[in-house]
Amino acid sequence: MTTTLATRVAALCEAGRLAGPGPFAETVLGHLGIVLPEGPSTVVLPDGLTLAYAHPAVTRVGPVGTSGRDAALRVSGTLPRVPYGATSTVLVLTEGPGGPVLFPVDPARTTAVPGTNLAGEPRDTLQLHDYAVAADDVHPLTPPELAEAGLRAALARAALIAGAAERCVELTVQHTTTRVQFGRPLSHFQAVKQEEARLIEESALVRAAVDAAARELSPVAVAAAKAQASASVAEIARIAHQLHGAIGFTELSELRFATTRLWSWRDEDGDESYWTALLGRAALAADDVWALLAV
Questions:
Q1: How far apart are CA 121 and CA 212, in angstroms?
Q2: 89-96 and 41-44 as β-strands: parallel, antiparallel, unpaired?
Q3: Is a pLDDT exceeding 90 seen at residue 189?
């Protein structure tokens, strides 16, 4: 049975809600038809790599049976802040000398510099020095496939944000319902009710945008989803922590697990400025802006 994109997005939302460790967002690109290696894998779409084929007469690696069969790709450059990069097979999608390509990188054959994001998730930098990729491991992509991979990566990150935002709502409502101040639960105070309503609204906006993009994987829909998800992080985290008080900032607080991921994920795979600029360009180029907004 084929797993639909909507099903994968729903699973990513749940992964974000549970703050589960692992490169969940990075595995959503399996739709490209590439057989994934055994064990954990992660995906990166870098710029600035230097790629060249070992045989100067070969300009593009093709499927088995073409002139590119015995070629080898040599790669140099940096893969910055790769999620779980030091412990996973890294699938690189990038522009090659003859067109977009996908190829695996074994971190053991690179110079790995460990790193983390604010939530403590591994974000490792890998240095490639004349890294050799066997011809059978180089898979040509079309430009639309490479562009779609970028959209899927952004949608996956937005889905994680949606899940973490929903967890912030759950934890905050639970806290304000059970925490008693001045003889009554916090949730009975009008100011708290208003802030909770804003928190629920922001979370719902993110989930609605993500679900819409999962139904129609278009540049505009994905841009709207990731822009909304990233932009909502500040308000969601502010309200949740404000209503929790100092309790939410403790090292092992469930809220902290959610909000540190929100702060980290908002900038990964394009922040709100990047995606709102794309939306603006799309609106300027559209013949019917209303039709664009009503998608």
A1: 28
A2: parallel
A3: yes
Which has more confidence, 67 or 81? 81
Residue 44, pLDDT score: 93
What are the structure tokens assigned to 200, written together? 């629920």
Which residue, 172, 233, 244, is CA-closest to 203? Answer: 233
Distance CA 235, CA 31 (A): 34
